C-alpha cells in the first residue's frame, strides 16, 4: 500500500541572524534523499521578523518619540491590490507603525499622482512611500516609481536603490527577493556554491532575486530563465535551488526537480477559489528536499520585509542608528 508521507514544517527558532554558510560543507546535500519535502514555513518565519521589527520600533519610539510612518498610494479599485494594501496596513498596525492610505480614482492623471508623491516626499512625517502596482494603464509606471524619493523608496524600485543593491551595498532590498533570502537563511539552507535557477526576470522579483543569490556572501551560481529560454526543464534538473517567479499556475513540474532540490515558489495565482503557486506542489512535495507552500511561504515574508524597509527608512531620515 502506498502511504503518502506527511509533510513536516521546516521551522526555525530564529529569524536573524542569517545562517553562516559552513565552509566547504554540504550539510544539506548530505541529507539522504528525502521521502518528503521539508515545508518552509514562511508564516512562522515572517512572524518572528515582525516581532523583531515591533521591538525595534518600540525602542525607537522610546528613544526618539518617532513612529515609522508608511504612506501607501492606491489608484483605482483592483480587488487584488485592495487586499494587498489592506494587509500592508494591518501589518503596519501590528508592528506599531503609522500608515496612511491615499486612494485615488482609476482615472487619476499622471500630474495629479506626481503631485501627491512630491507632497509625500517633502513631508518629514512620512518615512516610507509605497505605490501599489499595477497602476492603471494610462499612467507611466516607470516615471511614477522614479519620482519616489530614494530615501523613502521602501519597495526599492528607484534606480538609485537598485544600483546600490546590485553593488552589494543595499539601502533597501526589494521585499519579495529579500524575503526569499531570509527564508533560506532562517531555515539554514546554504546558497554558497549551489546552482540556483531563477525562473522569471521581472524588475520586482526575478532580476533582484538573481542579484541577491549572486552577491558575495550568498555566493550561488545563478541561471536566470525567461519566456525565451529553451529547455527550462533541463536547467531546473541541474538546480540545487529553484526560485519560480513566472506567474503561470503549476508551471514547474515535479519531474523537473532533483531529489535534493530546494524549491521556492514565489507565484501567487488564483485558480477558481484557490491560490496556487508557479510550482506543481503536489508533484514536487514527495520529490524534493524542501519547498515553500502557497499560500504561507513567500507571501508573508514580502510584507515582513516591507516593515523592515520602513523601519530602515525611518532610521535613515531621523539619523537613528
Ligand atoms: P512578471 O512581471 O509577469 O514576470 C514574469 C516573468 O516570467 C517574466 O520574466 C517572463 O519572461 C517569465 N515568463 C513568463 N512566461 C514564461 C514561460 N513560459 N517560460 C519561462 N518564463 C516565463 O511577474 P512577477 O511580478 O515577477 O511575478 C511572478 C509571480 O510572482 C506572479 O505569480 C506574482 O503574482 C508572484 N508574486 C508574488 C509575490 C509574493 O509576495 N509572493 C510578490 C510579487 C509577485 P519575459 O521577461 O521574457 O516576459
Short description:
By secondary structure, this protein is an alpha/beta fold. The protein contains eleven helices and twelve strands. Among the domains are: 86 residues, Leucine Dehydrogenase, chain A, domain 1 (Rossmann fold, 3-Layer(aba) Sandwich); 128 residues, NAD(P)-binding Rossmann-like Domain (Rossmann fold).
Give the biggest beta sheet: 7 strands, parallel
Helicity, as a percent range: 25-40%
Strand order, main sheet: write it out. Answer: 1-2-12-9-8-6-7
Count of β-strands: 12
Describe the structure.
The chain has a seven-stranded parallel β-sheet with strand order 1-2-12-9-8-6-7. It has a three-stranded parallel β-sheet with strand order 4-3-5, sandwiched between helices. Among the domains are: 66-151, Rossmann fold (3-Layer(aba) Sandwich); 174-301, 3-Layer(aba) Sandwich (Rossmann fold), CATH 3.40.50. The relative contact order is 0.17. The chain has eleven helices and twelve strands. The protein has 321 residues and is of the alpha/beta class. The model is unreliable at 1-6 and 11-34 (pLDDT under 50). The structure holds NADP nicotinamide-adenine-dinucleotide phosphate.
Amino acid at each position: 500500500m502506498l502511504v503518502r508521507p506527511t509533510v513536516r514544517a521546516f521551522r526555525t527558532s530564529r529569524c536573524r541572524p542569517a545562517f553562516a554558510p559552513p565552509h566547504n560543507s554540504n550539510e544539506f546535500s548530505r541529507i539522504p534523499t528525502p521521502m518528503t519535502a521539508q515545508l518552509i514555513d514562511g508564516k512562522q518565519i515572517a512572524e518572528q521578523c515582525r516581532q523583531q521589527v515591533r521591538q525595534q520600533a518600540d525602542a525607537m519610539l522610546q528613544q526618539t518619540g518617532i513612529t515609522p510612518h508608511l504612506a501607501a498610494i492606491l489608484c483605482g479599485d483592483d480587488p487584488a491590490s485592495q487586499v494587498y494594501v489592506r494587509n500592508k496596513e494591518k501589518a503596519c498596525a501590528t508592528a506599531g507603525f503609522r500608515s496612511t492610505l491615499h486612494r485615488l480614482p482609476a482615472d487619476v492623471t499622471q500630474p495629479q499622482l506626481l503631485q501627491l508623491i512630491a507632497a509625500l516626499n517633502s513631508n518629514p512625517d512620512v518615512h516610507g512611500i509605497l505605490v501599489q502596482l499595477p497602476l492603471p494603464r494610462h499612467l507611466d509606471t516607470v516615471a511614477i516609481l522614479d519620482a519616489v524619493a530614494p530615501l523613502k523608496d521602501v519597495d526599492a524600485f528607484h534606480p538609485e536603490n537598485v544600483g546600490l543593491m546590485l553593488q552589494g551595498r543595499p539601502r533597501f532590498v526589494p521585499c519579495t527577493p529579500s524575503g526569499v533570502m531570509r527564508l533560506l537563511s532562517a531555515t539554514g539552507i546554504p546558497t554558497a556554491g549551489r546552482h540556483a535557477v531563477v525562473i522569471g526576470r521581472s524588475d520586482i522579483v526575478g532580476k533582484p532575486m538573481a542579484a541577491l543569490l549572486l552577491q558575495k556572501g550568498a555566493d550561488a551560481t545563478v541561471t536566470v530563465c525567461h519566456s525565451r529560454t529553451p529547455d527550462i526543464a533541463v536547467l531546473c534538473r541541474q538546480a540545487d535551488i529553484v526560485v519560480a517567479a513566472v506567474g503561470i499556475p503549476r508551471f514547474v513540474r515535479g519531474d523537473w526537480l532533483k531529489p535534493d532540490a530546494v524549491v521556492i515558489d514565489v507565484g501567487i495565482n488564483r485558480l477558481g477559489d484557490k491560490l496556487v503557486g508557479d510550482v506543481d506542489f503536489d508533484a514536487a512535495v514527495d520529490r524534493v528536499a524542501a519547498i515553500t507552500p502557497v499560500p504561507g511561504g513567500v507571501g508573508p515574508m514580502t510584507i515582513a520585509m516591507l516593515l523592515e524597509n520602513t523601519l530602515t527608512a525611518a532610521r535613515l531620515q531621523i539619523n537613528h542608528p
